[in-house]
Design goal:
With about 375 residues, this protein is an alpha/beta fold. It has two domains: about 270 residues, Acetylglutamate kinase-like (Carbamate kinase), CATH 3.40.1160.10; about 90 residues, PUA domain (Archaeosine Trna-guanine Transglycosylase, Chain: A, domain 4), CATH 2.30.130.10. The protein is built from 16 helices and 13 strands. Strands 3-4-2-1-5-7-8-6 form an eight-stranded mixed beta sheet, with helices on both faces. A five-stranded mixed beta sheet has the order 10-9-11-12-13, with helices on both faces. α4 crosses α5, α9 runs parallel beside α11 and α9 packs antiparallel against α13.
Length: about 375
């Protein structure tokens, strides 16, 4: 059965980001499954042959390293995790190269860290590199730089990385390949009556509650991380499809618009590349807690944030750093660039514009965050 909504999503997907999880690539022993890897490569070739640009975000370096080192369980010690990643990354790329060579597809390895997305210049450089690889007809294969990225190994996952890459490229479709069929109405491991949700118009609190607390044995993520990644992409205007990567020819089925997996629809808005980076990619350096009037002015009236509306601030940040805006109940609703350092803002918060100039001089800004450098992220 063909889904008309999916047909439209597929038709618009000229650029596709495919994220494949560790458990999709591994066999029961935890080592790379070469047959599944080859099947994935064959499907990617068919997508490229249809004229689509494809980026592959691949987990599996730590899992591949575990197999090469004879480990049956994912280590918990940071040093051992980094050692597994160092061993496994080269092995993983060699495996992809072997599988794609028969199709004549050159591969390019890109290892990224969170800092590459926080820094605007490095962010744009990463984008330009990927676009240049498209011009050379290469397949970019992206992974977190596990050997040096401490935060990712302890707390992160490649689901978020894939969403950030999707926003970076403004790719219309992100596909998350995992080892479950999609999002269920409740945790299917504990509720036998759980039903697969085929389409999600918006990721809200009830959708997040359906995620459960499951986590894979080899990978670092779970259903919650996938939903957070899906929200990161959909709020910026992209579609996300989560499906079971262990099902034979799953990508072929997706691009035939068959009702497989769960489709998360984009929010009904478009966003510039600058706003995507500011609102959903760069990590805030500080937090500004504002009163109800300031939130209303920023969120509903499209106005700048003034010093008089700032109740409290947390963290140390400089002029030009990204800060997050929260109301007095701690709910984040916007992000933007601060015109003041935290030390200067502490001196003027809660004051009128004339008082600000008396405190800091006539060169002081009237706005803490100007509306042109601000993104509302509340639904």
């Amino acid at each position: 059965m063909i889904d008309a909504v999916r047909q439209e999503v597929i038709a618009l997907a000229a650029t596709v980001v495919v994220k494949v999880g560790t458990n999709v690539l591994a066999n029961e022993e935890g080592t790379l499954d070469r047959e599944r890897l080859q099947a994935l490569a064959d499907q990617i070739q068919r997508l490229r042959a249809a004229g689509r640009k494809v980026v592959l975000v691949s987990s599996g370096a730590i899992g591949a390293g575990m197999g090469r080192l004879g480990l049956s369980r994912r280590p918990t010690d940071l040093r051992q995790l980094q050692a597994c990643a160092a061993v496994g990354q080269a092995f993983l790329m060699r495996a992809y190269e072997d599988c794609l060579t028969r199709h004549g597809i050159p591969t390019a390895q890109i290892l990224l860290t969170a800092g590459d997305f926080d820094n605007r210049a490095r962010y744009l450089n990463a984008r330009n590199t990927i676009l240049s690889l498209f011009e050379y007809d290469c397949l970019p294969i992206i992974n977190e730089n596990d050997t040096v990225s401490v935060a990712e190994i302890r707390f992160g996952d490649n689901d978020r990385l894939a969403a950030l890459v999707t926003n970076l490229l403004q790719a219309p479709l992100l596909i998350l390949l995992t080892v479950v069929d999609g999002l269920y109405s409740s945790d299917p491991h504990t509720d036998p009556s759980a039903e697969l949700i085929t389409t999600v118009p918006s990721i809200n609190a009830s959708i997040l509650s359906a995620a459960g607390d499951s986590r894979s044995a080899l990978g670092s993520g779970g259903m919650r991380s996938k939903l957070r990644a899906a929200r990161l992409a959909t709020v910026a205007g992209e579609s996300v499809l989560m499906a079971n990567g262990s099902v034979p020819n799953i990508l072929d089925a997706i691009f035939r618009a068959e009702p497989v997996g769960t489709l998360f629809l984009p929010h009904d808005r478009t966003m510039s590349a600058w706003k995507r980076w500011l609102g959903y990619t760069a990590q805030p350096r500080g937090r500004l807690i504002v009163d109800a009037g300031a939130r209303r002015a920023v969120q509903n009236e499209g106005r700048s944030l003034l010093p008089i509306g700032v109740v409290r601030l947390d963290g140390w940040f400089g002029k030009g750093d990204v800060v997050t805006l929260l109301d007095v109940e701690g709910i984040e609703f916007a992000r933007g660039l601060s015109n003041f350092s935290s030390s200067d803002l502490e001196r003027i918060r809660g004051q009128r514009s004339d008082q600000v100039r008396d405190a800091l001089g006539d060169a002081a800004y009237d706005e803490v965050v100007h509306r042109d450098n601000l993104v509302v992220i509340a639904p």
